[in-house]
């Protein structure tokens, strides 16, 4: 008797991530409820963790007083300008290193030398060079974003399947066409993954820069709250940074879904 063909089900759906709506929000809600319960019952000390409801009330006060946007707008401006400069130049230099042997020979040792340097340690040097105003903050964020973006970009270019490049050459594609249609699309997943890390580093450096010589900004707000041991305001600032991180990650995810449809 002929055997009936059976459909083979791939484990994990062929390792393709399935979107589970609401799961992430549910995790946050559960953690907040546990924290609220713990602080109200005394299981968690009020000196260790403030009540989430008190932090929410602090947000309302910040909004009503107008201080929320006084701190948020300068931080977003510094983050956008610094990260845009660092990421743009990082991608350009990374692509040059990945495509040209001369650029690789000259720039890889330089990038390897400056990459391990803690960027926060360079803040006093940037203040000396650019002054204590906005330029030093832009420069620190841009420099901190630049180096990981370079490393991620030329690593992504190196990991493009050489078989596809040889196939394009065999079909007579020009060098520009191979770069535009094979190399850059193939490197895009690695570049976007590197941007996730680079932009997270940018948020960290934003806080460090604002803690030195900034009247307004999320970092300055957190420093003021910490000096007064005001846990509600301190955690409100930390939550704002967390929300920025979630927004950045969601934005990169949206770009990935739009630009990398060919992976599905």
Characterize this entry briefly.
The chain has 264 residues and is an all-alpha fold.
Q: Please, could you describe this protein's structure?
A:
There is one protein chain. The protein has helices spanning 12-15, 23-41, 52-65, 67-99, 101-114, 123-130, 134-158, 162-170, 175-210, 218-227, 231-259. With 264 residues, the chain is an all-alpha fold. It has a single domain (48-263), classed as MetI-like (MetI-like fold). The longest helix is centred in the last third of the chain and has 36 residues, at 175-210. The radius of gyration is 24 Å and the shape is globular. 27% of the residues are buried. The model has no long low-confidence stretch (mean pLDDT 85). InterPro entries: MetI-like, MetI-like_sf. Belongs to the binding-protein-dependent transport system permease family. This is ABC transporter permease subunit. The chain crosses the membrane at residues 21-39, 79-100, 107-132, 138-157, 197-222, 234-255.
Give helix and strand order, one letter per element, not per position.
HHHHHHHHHHH
- Overall spatial form: globular
| Structural domains: how many | 1
Stretches where pLDDT falls below 50 for ≥5 residues? Answer: none
Determine the oligomeric state from the structure.
single chain
Transmembrane segments: 21-39, 79-100, 107-132, 138-157, 197-222, 234-255
Membrane topology: Multi-pass membrane protein
Organism: Sulfitobacter sediminilitoris
GO biological process, one term: transmembrane transport
